[in-house]
Write a structure and sequence with these properties.
heterodimer, A: 114 residues, mainly beta, seven-stranded mixed beta sheet, four-stranded antiparallel beta sheet, 11 strands, B: mainly beta, six-stranded mixed beta sheet, five-stranded antiparallel beta sheet
Chain lengths: 114, 113
């Protein structure tokens, strides 16, 4: 069964460093999402992406964040200068359509900023 | 302001019990997800529904659009059902077409043998 994959599973970085989190969505899906979950808190929407551009982004998704689909398979989230408060689990998701199709989640990347 | 509220926050049950988790939402939605999150952190989609009822094995999800309420039921619960169950509303408020999810805080279920 097709699934969303994410790498790495765990990333440890120093404050101020750049990190790139990678996702491979399900191949026929057209909509891609990033969510994050700070430890002990609820999952929060970061950004949605369709047709090679951002469809919507939340207040969390400031200038330090960017997303890219560099080729036909990968979907990346870049944090330019990490802060301690960026430590969280980051989930990628994809769906065939936006409103009426199920979103499938990757296993997540745990980001730890020291 | 919590747009998606779940109850209870924590639930302990004995194996075999019938379990109900409730979700209320205040936003306009196109659909609602029920998700399962295991201790390792991974999220699995259980259901997406926009009306009525869906059943998969021992899991049943219902939604009442007029009352803005959904329930997840687990019949004949088992210790392997222990996880966090999350309700997520697919909002129509973000420009109307993006389908972004607004999550509840989750219900932590523990099923004892």
């Amino acid at each position: 069964e097709p699934e969303v994959t994410q790498t790495p599973s765990h990333q440890v970085t120093q404050m101020g460093q750049e990190v790139i989190l990678r996702c491979v969505p399900i191949s026929n899906h057209l909509y891609f999402y990033w969510y994050r979950q700070i430890l002990g808190q609820k999952v929060e929407f970061l950004v949605s992406f369709y047709n090679n551009e951002i469809s919507e982004k939340s207040e969390i998704f400031d200038d330090q964040f960017s997303v890219e689909r560099p080729d036909g398979s990968n979907f990346t989230l870049k944090i330019r200068s990490t802060k301690l408060e960026d430590s969280a689990m980051y989930f990628c998701a994809s769906s065939v359509d936006s409103l009426y199709n199920e979103q499938f989640f990757g296993p997540g990347t745990r980001l730890t900023v020291l | 302001k919590n747009e998606v509220e779940q109850s209870p926050q924590n639930l302990t049950a004995q194996e075999g019990e019938f379990i109900t988790i409730n979700c209320s939402y205040s936003v306009g939605i196109s659909a609602l997800h029920w998700l399962q999150q295991h201790p390792g952190g991974g999220i699995v989609s259980l259901f997406m529904l926009s009306s009525g009822k869906k059943k998969h094995g021992r899991l049943i999800a219902t939604i009442n659009i007029q009352e803005k309420h959904s329930s997840l039921h687990i019949t004949a619960s088992h210790p392997r059902d222990s996880a966090v169950y999350i309700c997520a509303a697919m909002s129509m408020n973000y420009g109307g077409s993006q389908g972004n999810l607004i999550f509840g805080k989750g219900t932590k279920l523990s099923v004892k043998p």
